[in-house]
């Protein structure tokens, strides 16, 4: 028996919007600690890890660990039927092949039940080791989204370089090149507008902007985004989800044989 | 007609042996059973895609009969097989479009919903399974078409005479022995010149297809009989003498281009309007179908077919991949043009599109000139000089590719010697008098003879970075080149074309040389590059790391 009651139902809606473009089918794993998901995109270049801790739910009951395979597009369709202020409850019976989403309007005068079929998905669960990152950039998520969108109009890949000067996003395309440098900036009114760069070592990595742009679909979930870079590891783009968890995107860097890092795809 | 054609083919086409004549002729239910069984065997044992076009050519039945056969087959043996239907009709959207699509069986009902009212449904093909690559759908028929075209020119086969076309013209007489070739070829020209060609009179329309056919035949015959070539040349040269001083460039052109385009069409003939054809044909027809009269439709088809047919195999693909290569774009333009201008100008557009294609090849970067021309031409302006001059300029830089041409010239030497003397004079005259015009003609000519021998081919390769790059490449076979390039020339000899060619060979080589390469080489590279570019975006990048190389499965 599983019953998760999430008062801020819009969070779940946003989570789905954030990942459904990257991953089509995924297993949601429910355990006593929380509601989580880990999935790779079809090309095995990116990985998304979601965690909604049990404490974040108003009511969290999970009798035994359960894994529910869902088509994220279908799930998103159902969640779109929920209002932004609705309370969402996820219910599933042990051994059942369906999951029920219940939406309650804030005034409790409308209650909807949506039952969705589950599917069997071969899950490939990856162990993600804790790692020290060479550089960690925290910046406004909207700014990051803007940068990725802008660069994608010029090139296919972005080189993210962190030096003591700041963080530089650069790309090169058929029409030209683009470089965006952000400096550390902590003197802002609101802490979420700060750009904070922690650097142990300079690092420079190349990524496909296509994936970066799909990560930024998570922007509504959080005002800030944390980008963790290490030369030997996938980049981690993390969006915190209001007190209760996170959504992390891992993206394998592009391998550079030549110096021409931002070389456009010809 | 059917009887005749069949009997004619019998000896030469290996495929004719499949079925005996009476069967073909009568096509009674019982006899078609034999075909149905063969379809069964082909589909389930050989796993071949059997399309109605293939069927039509292979068993020498008309395309409509082939469709019916397939439908019958699906009814009887359809279970366990995949069926691709061809749907055509007006869409519900406004403004409604005429739409033709191929749909697999399960999606048929759904696809029908999109149509306003009734839509026509026929079985396009049956196969054991839906191929992943849609190109596989017409692969077999394409091969078949190629084989048919590779047959000696003396062999009359169903593609050459288009006998299974749904649209038949009683004016057309197939002239098997080729005695009166030249006459036949000349007549249509006179129509083209003297008549007010653009008017939509029934006569004209009727004349057009017949003209095509004749031309086609004449091409066959002429090719067979070298001596006639000489005659043609002469007649041409006289023609030229008349025309050029008289400065009727437009008329001449029209002949040329119409001829050439006809030729192209015929030779490319996967595209032969109704009977042959690839997916692209079907789609190409969409825009013309709405029009009332079927004959012009036929003609305008050929317009598109020329464009389309060249790309036939690819076009579909390209569309699927949402690539607006220049070719594609131009196709679209032409179609629109033909729609907008109505029947009256169709033929003209046809001509131009021919040139356009050529230009297209030369100068992909500037899609505008072709349009301008087509408008010019469609107006039947005698200003043709103006638009062509730019071509000249365009062509000039391409001298480096002379080799190709030279090859040709050497091939033709025996003939060209005779021609050259004759043509030489006229050419000289022309060149001196109206340089631009002759050049323009040259181009036209070249465009005509060259294009038939080339075909666009999708080539997929893995590039140095490991990405899969699919290119659209013009591929021409040398041997074919020779034969075909000769053929059209001779045929064209009724018009100034041949003369120009000879001229170019003897006196004026460089320009000709420029041109053919321009067609052959530059054109291919451009679209190819583009296709490659766009696809590269989606292709898998070897440089992209894999997340699995960082994290281990638990």
TrEMBL record, chain A:
Domain Proliferating cell nuclear antigen PCNA C-terminal: 127-254
Biological processes annotated in GO: leading strand elongation; mismatch repair; regulation of DNA replication; translesion synthesis
Keywords: DNA replication, DNA-binding, Nucleus
Main location: nucleus
Pfam families noted in UniProt: PCNA_C, PCNA_N
Database matches in SUPFAM superfamilies: DNA clamp
Gene3D superfamilies: 3.70.10.10
Subcellular location: Nucleus
GO cellular component, one term: PCNA complex
A Gene Ontology molecular function term of the record: DNA binding
Positions of transmembrane segments: none
Domain of life (superkingdom): Eukaryota
Residues of the Proliferating cell nuclear antigen PCNA N-terminal domain: 1-125
Function noted in UniProt: This protein is an auxiliary protein of DNA polymerase delta and is involved in the control of eukaryotic DNA replication by increasing the polymerase's processivity during elongation of the leading strand.
Family to which this protein belongs: Belongs to the PCNA family.
HAMAP family per record: DNApol_clamp_arch
Name assigned to this protein: DNA sliding clamp PCNA
Organism field: Theobroma cacao (Cacao)
TrEMBL record, chain B:
Residue segments, region Disordered: 190-462, 476-554
Biased composition regions of type Polar residues, renumbered to the chain: 200-227
Top-level taxon of the source organism: Eukaryota
Record localization: Nucleus
GO cellular component: delta DNA polymerase complex
Biased composition (Low complexity): 417-427, 495-513
Chief localisation class: nucleus
Record-given protein name: DNA polymerase delta subunit 3
Organism name: Theobroma cacao
Lineage: Eukaryota, Viridiplantae, Streptophyta, Embryophyta, Tracheophyta
């Amino acid at each position: 028996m599983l019953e998760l009651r999430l008062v801020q139902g819009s969070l779940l809606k946003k989570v789905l919007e954030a990942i459904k473009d990257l991953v089509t089918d995924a297993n949601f794993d429910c355990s006593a600690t929380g509601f989580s998901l880990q999935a790779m995109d079809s090309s095995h270049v990116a990985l998304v890890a979601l965690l909604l801790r049990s404490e974040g739910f108003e009511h969290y009951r999970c009798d035994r660990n359960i894994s529910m395979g869902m088509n994220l597009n279908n799930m998103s369709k159902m969640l779109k039927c929920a209002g932004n202020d609705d309370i969402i409850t996820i219910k599933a019976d042990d051994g059942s092949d369906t999951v029920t989403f219940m939406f309650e309007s804030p005034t409790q005068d409308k209650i909807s039940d949506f039952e969705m079929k589950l599917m069997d998905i071969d899950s490939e669960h990856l162990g993600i080791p804790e790692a020290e990152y060479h550089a960690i950039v925290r910046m406004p998520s909207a700014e990051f989204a803007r940068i990725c969108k802008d660069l994608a109009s010029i090139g296919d890949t972005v080189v993210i370089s962190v030096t003591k000067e700041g963080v530089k996003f650069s790309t090169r395309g058929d029409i030209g090149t683009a470089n965006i440098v952000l400096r550390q900036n902590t003197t802002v009114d609101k802490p979420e507008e700060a750009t904070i760069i922690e650097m142990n070592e300079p690092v420079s990595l190349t990524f496909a902007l296509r994936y970066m742009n799909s990560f930024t679909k998570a922007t509504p979930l959080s005002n800030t985004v944390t980008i963790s870079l290490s030369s030997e590891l996938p980049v981690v783009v993390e969006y915190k989800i209001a007190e209760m968890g996170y959504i992390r995107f891992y993206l394998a860097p592009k391998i550079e044989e030549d110096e021409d890092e931002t070389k456009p795809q010809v | 007609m059917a009887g005749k054609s069949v009997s004619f083919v019998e000896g030469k086409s290996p495929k004719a042996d499949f079925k005996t004549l009476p069967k073909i002729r009568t096509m009674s239910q019982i006899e078609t059973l034999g075909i149905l069984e063969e379809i069964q065997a082909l589909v389930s044992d050989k796993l071949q895609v059997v399309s109605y076009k293939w069927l039509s050519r292979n068993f020498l039945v008309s395309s409509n009969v082939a469709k019916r056969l397939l439908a019958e087959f699906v009814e009887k043996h359809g279970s366990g097989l995949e069926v691709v239907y061809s749907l055509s009709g007006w869409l519900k959207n406004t403004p409604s479009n005429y739409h033709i699509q191929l749909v697999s069986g399960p999606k048929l009902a759904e696809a029908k919903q999109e149509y306003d009212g009734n839509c026509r449904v026929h079985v396009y093909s049956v196969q054991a399974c839906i191929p992943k690559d849609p190109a596989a759908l017409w692969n077999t028929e394409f091969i078949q078409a190629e084989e048919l075209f590779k047959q000696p020119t003396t062999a009359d086969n169903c593609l050459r005479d288009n006998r299974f076309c749904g649209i038949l013209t009683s004016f057309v007489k197939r002239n098997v022995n080729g005695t009166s070739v030249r006459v036949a070829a000349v007549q249509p020209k006179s129509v083209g010149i003297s008549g007010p060609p653009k008017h939509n009179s029934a006569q004209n329309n009727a004349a057009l297809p017949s003209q095509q056919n004749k031309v086609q035949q004449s091409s066959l015959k002429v090719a067979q009989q070298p001596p006639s070539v000489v005659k043609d040349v002469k007649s041409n040269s006289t023609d030229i003498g008349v025309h050029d001083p008289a400065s009727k460039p437009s008329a001449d052109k029209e002949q040329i281009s119409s001829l050439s385009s006809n030729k192209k069409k015929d030779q490319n003939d996967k595209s032969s309007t109704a009977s042959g054809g690839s997916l692209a044909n079907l789609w190409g027809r969409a825009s013309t179908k709405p029009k009332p009269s079927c004959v012009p439709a036929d003609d305008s088809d050929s317009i598109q077919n020329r464009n389309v047919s060249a790309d036939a195999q690819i076009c579909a693909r390209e569309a699927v991949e949402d690539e607006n290569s220049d070719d594609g774009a131009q196709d679209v333009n032409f179609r629109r043009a033909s729609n907008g201008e109505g029947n009256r100008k169709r033929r003209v557009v046809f001509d131009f599109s021919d040139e356009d294609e050529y230009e297209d090849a030369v100068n992909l970067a500037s899609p505008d000139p072709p349009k301008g021309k087509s408008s010019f031409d469609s107006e039947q302006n005698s200003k043709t000089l103006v638009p062509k001059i730019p071509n000249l300029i365009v062509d000039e830089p391409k001298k480096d590719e002379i080799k190709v041409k030279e090859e040709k010239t050497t091939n033709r030497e025996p003939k060209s010697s005779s021609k050259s003397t004759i043509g030489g004079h006229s050419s000289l005259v022309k060149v001196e008098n109206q340089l631009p015009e002759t050049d323009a003609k040259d181009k036209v000519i070249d465009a005509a003879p060259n294009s038939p021998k080339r075909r666009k081919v999708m080539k997929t390769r893995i590039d140095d970075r490991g990405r899969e790059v699919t290119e659209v490449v013009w591929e021409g076979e040398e041997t074919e080149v020779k034969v075909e390039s000769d053929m059209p020339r001779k045929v064209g000899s009724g018009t100034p074309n041949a003369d120009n060619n000879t001229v170019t060979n003897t006196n004026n080589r460089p320009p000709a040389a420029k041109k053919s390469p321009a067609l052959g080489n530059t054109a291919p590279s451009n679209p190819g590059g583009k296709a490659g570019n766009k696809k590269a975006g989606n292709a898998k990048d070897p440089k992209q790391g894999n997340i699995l190389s960082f994290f281990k499965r638990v």
